[in-house]
Amino acid sequence: MISFLELERTQTLITFKYKPDGEVTKSFLKDDTFFRGIRGPVGSGKSVACSIEVFRRALQQEKSADGKRKSRWAIIRNTNPQLRTTTIKTWLDWFPEEDWGRFQWSVPYTHRITKSDLDLEVIFLALDRPEDVKKLLSLELTGIWINEAREIPKSIIDACTMRVGRYPSMRDGGPTWTGVIADTNAPEEDHWWAIMAGDVPVPDHISREEALMLVKPDNWSFYTQPSAMLEKKENGITIAYEPTDNAENKSNLTENIILILLEVKLKVGLMFMF
Ligand SMILES: Nc1ncnc2c1ncn2[C@@H]1O[C@H](COP(=O)(O)OP(=O)(O)O)[C@@H](O)[C@H]1O
Ligand SMILES: [Mg+2]
Question: How far is the CA of 143 from the centre of ligand 2 (A)?
């Protein structure tokens, strides 16, 4: 691993390349809305897009008086095994320890990325124990990414919206952007996500009070990726599933090629090219 000082001396570049593969993913990433959700089929690039979004917002953070771009994110998953085997795995695939520093494998799992003027702290939390929720509710954060949000109750989502916008403190200039991002595979029909996104009408069994809590606020937006498979029906009966042409992230799944659209170059003094 190259140390910061070596980095400074040699002006070594870490080149980071990512291209969102799909129009919906691209629009999701371009949006500044406070709460943004993206839903889509498995393997459509949602987790990667959200990982990139955390990093991109950290790069965009204005410097505090001490010259650092400070931000703190929490990344949430419903269970610990899934957090470790999928969420953290995706994160470390894109932000490997050799380039971005040691990952702290003791609870709370944390990846502190300090390079040049970037100071990003990412805390990974599973919510399978009550104390995990307590931990989340005591954090002062810039942003939160809720991974596989269909597994997380709406009350926790609402609580998340209250924990962001608190770091860096106003004394340090405050967060340049703050908010909550969420991704999910297709939820059940009467799920809070489907109702809030307007995919389904409010079901009859939901009380008036509950229904009010599921009205989409103006500063929330939901994105839906095209489905990867099309149901082929005959006489109302599903006879086959066929791949569609407009599925997102197809090239990465079939040929595993990485193209370049959003290119971030990081060097001493920081030079970013988008
Ligand atoms: N823009 C991209 N460029 C290259 N590979 C990508 C890109 N987006 C996703 N991938 C790869 O495609 C696979 C599925 O992506 P992932 O984000 O895990 O999908 P999802 O979360 O929607 O199930 C992973 O192997 C991931 O590394
Ligand atoms: Mg995923």
Answer: 18
What does pTM read for this prediction? 0.86
Q: Which residue's CA is minimally distant from atom 7 of ligand 1?
A: 45
Torsion of CA 145, 198, 193, 56, to 10 degrees: -10
- Detail the DSSP E strand segments found in the chain: 14-18, 35-39, 69-77, 103-104, 109-115, 118-126, 143-146, 179-184, 220-224, 229-234, 237-243, 262-266
pLDDT digits (tens, 9 = 90+) for 237-247: 766 666 677 78
pLDDT in tens, 248-264: 887 665 433 233 233 33
Tell whether ligand 1 has an atom less than 6 A from the beta carbon of residue 143.
no
Task: Say which amino acid occupies 213.
Answer: M
Tell me the CA–centroid distance for residue 94 and ligand 2, in Å: 13
The half-sphere exposure of 235 on its side-chain side, counting CA atoms within 13 A, is: 0
pLDDT tier at 270, thresholds 50, 70, 90: very low
Any idea where the domains of the chain sit in the sequence?
Answer: 23-224, 229-273
Q: Which of 128-132, 177-181, 231-235 has the lowest average pLDDT?
A: 231-235
The answer to whether the CB of 41 is under 6 A from ligand 1 is: no
Question: Does the Cβ of 110 fall within 6 Å of ligand 1?
Answer: no
Lowest mean pLDDT among 68-72, 185-189, 268-272: 268-272
- Provide the CATH number for the domain formed by 23-224 in this structure: 3.40.50.300
Which atom of ligand 1 is least distant from the CA of 257? 4
Predicted confidence (pLDDT) at residue 99 exceeds the cutoff of 50:
yes
- Give, using CA atoms, the residue closest to atom 8 of ligand 1: 45
- For residue 85, the CA-to-ligand 2 centroid distance in Å is 11
